[in-house]
């Protein structure tokens, strides 16, 4: 089904320098309100954050001064035409993701790939150096 259009839940964050990762942004804002999704590419100077409710977005906007000063970010709630275009982008991106061909593995192929992954993990684990300390 995908995300349903709700007005006033998208907040645009603009920064003078590249933003940290998606998880760091989500963690920083999750302290204030419930974040549904952070839309950004690595190294971008702006991103869009979708909150669960318009009230969550307003909570962040009201208390954004401390976050803005700490991280040097500017916040802006999308409205009107910008908001409509962004929701269109969400739907287009979602369709593109769902229409991507995916690799289908079945039966023995799937088991062989899983066994190979497990073997690789095991060899990486055993090849670690064991260091003993002498506490005399």
Describe what you observe in this structure.
- This protein has helices at residues 22-30, 54-62, 64-71, 80-98, 107-126, and strands spanning 10-15, 35-39, 46-51, 73-77.
- By secondary structure, the protein is of the alpha+beta class.
- The protein has a domain at 10-99: RRM (RNA recognition motif) domain (Alpha-Beta Plaits), CATH 3.30.70.
- The chain has a four-stranded antiparallel β-sheet with strand order 2-3-1-4.
- The longest helix is centred in the C-terminal third of the chain and has 20 residues, at 107-126.
- The N and C termini lie far apart (65 Å).
- Keywords: RNA-binding.
- It comes from Nicator chloris.
Briefly, what is this?
This protein has about 140 residues and is of the alpha+beta class. It is built from 5 helices and 4 strands; from the N terminus they run βαββααβαα. It has a 4-stranded antiparallel beta sheet.
């Amino acid at each position: 089904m995908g995300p349903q259009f709700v007005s006033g839940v998208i907040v645009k964050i603009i920064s003078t320098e590249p933003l940290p990762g998606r998880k760091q942004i989500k963690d920083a804002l999750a302290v204030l309100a419930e974040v549904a999704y952070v839309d950004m590419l690595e190294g971008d100077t702006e991103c869009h954050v979708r909150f669960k409710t318009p009230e969550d977005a307003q909570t962040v906007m009201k208390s954004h001064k401390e976050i803005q000063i700490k991280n040097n970010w500017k916040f802006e709630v999308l409205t009107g035409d910008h908001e409509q275009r962004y929701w269109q982008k969400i739907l287009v991106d979602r369709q593109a993701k769902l229409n991507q061909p995916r690799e289908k593995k079945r039966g023995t192929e799937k088991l062989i790939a899983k066994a190979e992954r497990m073997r690789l993990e095991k060899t990486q684990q055993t090849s670690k150096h064991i260091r003993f300390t002498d506490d005399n």
